[in-house]
Design goal:
By secondary structure, the chain is mainly β. The N and C termini lie far apart (43 Å).
């Protein structure tokens, strides 16, 4: 039946990708790169809501979206990816990463895929995220193996058009290579 809404819950996440913003004024991005396998992701927009009262009752409400907390956990976080998203330098001779207090993390677009119970997918892009240094925590191996995976934290904001996220769903229309490029932009090669 045409126009029928298809409902299917999401069942998982996968295919984390990112693109470094190469020009903040024009908001252009480098090519999309794959990130390590995704374990979980949490996107929490900070929303401020206020209510105006007059004549002893609520007469109007307004909301605004502020920054967006972005937290995810991956299987690993290779030095090459950390250098990209945190602005650090890889030593070209031995591949070690050099952390400098003057390094500046770039804005990064982040995309990922959500699988759905009906076999289709939902895709998400966040346009402008700046990541923070990754905290390290380790424990010794005992009689039971415990995987120790990195958790990455960042703050997202809207782009110059006020857009902070784009979502595409295969249940709502045709979706072709949605994670290949940041929506609405042409990649800088």
């Amino acid at each position: 039946m045409a126009g029928e809404i298809v409902n299917s819950a999401t069942t998982g996440i996968k295919k984390l990708v990112y693109a470094i913003m190469t020009d903040e004024v024009m908001e252009t991005y480098a090519v999309v790169k794959p990130a390590p396998p995704l374990i979980n992701i949490k996107i929490v927009p900070k929303v401020d809501a206020v209510t105006l009262y007059a004549d002893n009752q609520a007469v109007e409400t307004a909301t605004s979206v502020g920054d967006i907390a972005v937290d995810f956990e991956t299987q690993d976080m290779p030095l090459e990816v950390q250098a990209d998203i945190l602005g650090h330098t890889l030593d070209p001779l031995d591949g070690s990463m050099i952390y400098n207090i003057n390094d500046k993390a770039p804005y990064v677009a982040v995309g990922y895929q959500r699988t759905k119970g009906n076999g289709k997918n939902r895709y998400v892009w966040l346009y402008k995220v700046k990541f923070q240094e990754i905290a390290e925590e380790g424990v010794t191996q005992a009689d039971k193996v415990t995987f120790q995976t990195p958790k990455v934290t960042g703050i997202g904001i809207a782009n110059k058009n006020g857009e902070w996220k784009t979502v595409a769903d295969e249940d709502s229309g045709a979706v072709v290579d949605f994670l290949a490029t940041v929506p609405g932009t042409a990649p800088i090669v």
